[in-house]
Specification:
Helix 1 packs across helix 6. This protein folds into 3 domains: 152 residues, 3-Layer(aba) Sandwich (Rossmann fold); 230 residues, TIM Barrel, CATH 3.20.20.70; 209 residues, TIM Barrel. The longest helix has 15 residues. It has 22 helices and 23 strands. With 639 residues, it is of the alpha/beta class. An 8-stranded parallel sheet has the order 22-21-20-19-18-17-16-23. Helix 9 links the parallel strand 9 and strand 10. Bound molecules: cobalamin (B12) and iron/sulfur cluster.
Length: 639
């Protein structure tokens, strides 16, 4: 029996999360089932497909693998896309058995989106349940849904972690794509913060045995891992913490970087030394708020003096401290939120700060109490706050976010540029769809193109003799929203000479789909352009009227189009800070690229190429990192 363990990744416009696309939950379940007599064939999709391909391209890969059973892991970032994918799969393969679980199984949204489609939707730990369900399916592949559900619900009780086989040591999964090893040393969390599902509502905390940690640290050393990420929510509650840190220091012979989450309030100089000696290079810590009223409501407390002291002790020893704060907690006001920001600035702790808007996650105490606490939120993922009792509405939260960005000197919402670079031959996915100017075809892509499309494709509209076909741009955008709503598209409009700005402003609403996850996730971003569900750009040789192009750039970013070397020699060019696309099929000599280094110092990613080999040379010249596992992207020009 072929069982596909499916977990769709976190997405964004720059494929930034490719390194964290790792099916750990499936790995655990497959390892447990294999070592408990379920002799099945576990399948995982290649990561270059999951991280970079659109939903239909993933469907194509699943059809090729032809699984009998799909085990889907559902998180808030993937539940809608997984639902669409599984509906399409069921249409093509009516006999496939579909099982789902993960944090999103705990909520109403999950049941609505997938309840009818799945044979089981399991809320809770999956290893034991899945083994029982697979045993039944192996015995009788046609077994009825009701029987499967009753088998699942009769298996309660939490697994003893001493019996759990390791998905890594059993060879089921390897390191994450960025070569880090993710390992738990506990399940559950002793704290009960109202907004959190990290502890998955387990009634107690369970620990993995000491040997588990030892074997994983040794394995990571042996495999040349870049980092070991202890997924524990509160590493400091590990029993015999000091002893364990000393042991980790001994096991971690090659000094693989370590990372975890912990409360820094309890860190004294001795513990800080031990963290450093074990190999910790970074610790993420939740401050959330410094306001006592707010903290009390969400079941937390914080001694700010101890927090600052602990954080500094770690920083002094070279351990990075990444601090999380939340905007929009119950009772939060713009003043209380900004007081938290000020605390970090005042303490000199503002270099690595994440500001997360509050999410009302399914299965949490906050979800139960949201109404009582006056927290309004969207009832669909990511369940983001829209108003608080403290008087913050969306506009007030956007303003607070903007102020936080200013005070912390942080860009919390990065702008990604389109990826134009492609390989001439033998590509895996289509990254650029070029739409010719005059005889622009009706919107729509042939099936064989749709099934090879990248997740963040570029739709490049070429300018013709009659200018740009604005109407067609709108039709294409509406077609995309109706037919392939899951992708994160870049709309690149070639416009080489000044044009009526209203034309551009009029197409923008069609390029934004407010019903997408992306639009909801970035709803509190202060910049209206970045709140869009797609990324429009103007591509231009910028002929004439520099002020005109500067003006356009303040509405929609402009990328400068160049075809010949030498564009950098123009001194005092007011448009010199625009990103540049160097469109050429030739290989550019590294000596030329070295000349450009100075011009793009600190913004290396703003020089773009149409040929992938040139991107690689540029990365070598500048030391810029490229995704190691990126598939080959191709470019097509519609007839
Ligand atoms: C690693 C991680 C990430 C990684 C990505 C993970 C990935 N592989 O793609 C990164 C760092 C990118 C990430 C980002 C975010 N994350 Co995160 N993340 C985690 C973390 C720490 C570990 C996930 C994991 O692998 N756990 C270990 C596995 C074994 O546990 P599990 O997933 O629960 O699986 C078990 C069961 O659920 C069940 N099960 C799972 N699938 C199935 C299927 C079947 C059929 C069955 C029967 C059972 C079953 O069995 C499994 C084994 O016991 C969890 C917290 C945690 N400890 O789980 C949060 C968590 C998943 N993240 C969460 C959140 C909120 C986020 C963010 C939205 C945070 C933010 N505000 O930005 C962002 C996403 C941003 C975006 N753009 O959307 C929430 C998700 C809640 C939800 N309803 O989905 C969690 C639970 C933490 C929390 N705060 O409560 N995250
Ligand atoms: S926020 Fe951290 S400490 Fe609080 S319950 Fe979640 S994991 Fe535990």
């Amino acid at each position: 029996m072929k069982v596909l363990y499916l977990q769709l990744p976190v997405l964004d416009f720059g494929y930034d999360y490719w390194g964290a696309d790792h099916p750990l939950a499936g790995g655990y379940m497959a390892a447990y089932c294999l070592t408990h007599g379920m002799d099945h064939e576990p399948l995982f999709l290649p990561q270059k497909i999951t991280s970079f391909a659109s939903t239909l391209a993933i469907l194509d890969e699943i059809l090729r693998l032809d699984p009998d059973v799909v085990v889907a892991t559902l998180y808030l970032w993937n539940i809608e896309r997984t639902a669409r994918l599984l509906h399409l799969l069921k249409q093509e393969r009516p006999k496939v058995r579909l099982l789902g679980g993960g944090p999103e199984a705990a909520g109403r949204f999950g049941r609505r989106a997938l309840g009818g489609l799945l044979d089981i939707l399991w809320k809770g730990e999956g290893e034991v349940v899945l083994a029982k369900v697979l045993a039944e399916l192996m015995d009788d592949p046609e077994v009825g849904v009701m029987k499967l559900r009753s088998i699942a619900s009769s298996s309660d009780g939490l697994l003893s972690l001493h019996e759990l086989p390791s998905p890594y040591l059993e060879g089921v999964i390897g390191l994450a794509p960025d070569r880090s090893l993710w390992v738990e040393s506990m399940r559950g969390c002793p704290f009960r913060c109202a907004y959190c599902y990290y502890g998955k509502s387990f009634s107690k905390v369970r620990w993995f045995p000491k040997e588990w940690i030892e074997r994983h640290v040794l394995w990571a050393n042996e495999k040349g891992a870049q980092e070991i990420y202890f997924l524990d929510p509160s590493f400091q509650v590990l029993p015999s913490l000091e002893e364990r840190l000393k042991e980790i220091a001994r096991w971690n012979r090659k000094r693989v970087r370590l990372h975890t989450e912990a409360r820094v309030e309890m860190v004294d100089s001795r513990l800080a030394d031990l963290f450093r000696e074990a190999g910790f290079s970074s610790i993420e810590t939740g401050l959330q708020s410094t306001n006592n009223e707010v903290l009390k409501k969400i079941g937390r407390s914080c001694d700010t003096a101890s927090f600052a002291r602990g954080a500094h002790l770690l920083l002094e020893r070279g351990v990075d401290v990444e601090i999380d704060i939340i905007l929009g907690l119950p009772g939060d006001t713009p003043e209380s939120f900004l007081a938290t920001v000020e605390f970090l600035v005042g303490e000199g702790l503002s270099t690595k700060v994440n500001v997360f808007p509050l999410l009302v996650l399914p299965g949490t105490r906050l979800e139960e109490r949201a109404k009582k606490w006056g927290v309004n939120y969207t009832k669909v993922p990511p369940y983001q706050v829209e108003a608080t009792e403290g008087g913050m509405d969306i506009e007030a939260m956007r303003a607070a976010m903007e102020e936080a960005e200013k005070r912390l000197h942080l860009g919390l919402y990065p702008l990604h540029l389109p990826e134009f670079a492609s390989q001439g031959e033998g590509w895996d996915l289509i990254g650029v769809v070029e739409i010719p100017p005059d005889e622009t075809p009706e919107p729509g892509l042939p099936e064989q193109v749709l099934r090879r499309l990248a997740q963040c494709p570029v739709f490049l509209f070429r300018e013709g003799k009659k200018g740009l076909p604005w109407e067609k741009v709108i039709h294409w955008a509406l077609w995309q929203r109706a037919n392939i709503p899951d992708i994160l598209p870049f709309w690149v409009l070639e416009l080489n000479s000044p044009f009526p700005q209203e034309e551009l402003i009029q197409v923008l609403p069609a390029l934004h789909d407010p019903s997408t996850y992306q639009a909801r996730l970035w709803n509190l971003c202060p910049d209206p352009y970045l709140r869009m569900s797609s990324r429009p750009f103007v591509l231009s040789t910028c002929k004439g009227q520099e002020e005109f192009w500067m003006d356009i750039n303040s509405t929609v970013p402009v990328i400068r189009l160049v075809r010949e070397p030498g564009f950098w020699s123009r001194e005092r060019d007011p448009l010199r800070n625009f990103p540049v696309l160097w469109e050429t099929d030739s290989l550019i000599r590294p000596i030329l690229l070295r000349e450009l280094r100075g011009l793009f110092q600190g913004r290396e990613e703003e020089l773009l190429f149409t040929r992938w080999e040139n991107t690689v040379s540029w990365a070598m010249v500048t030391g810029m990192e490229l995704p190691l596992t990126r598939p080959r992207f191709g470019r097509i020009r519609l007839p």
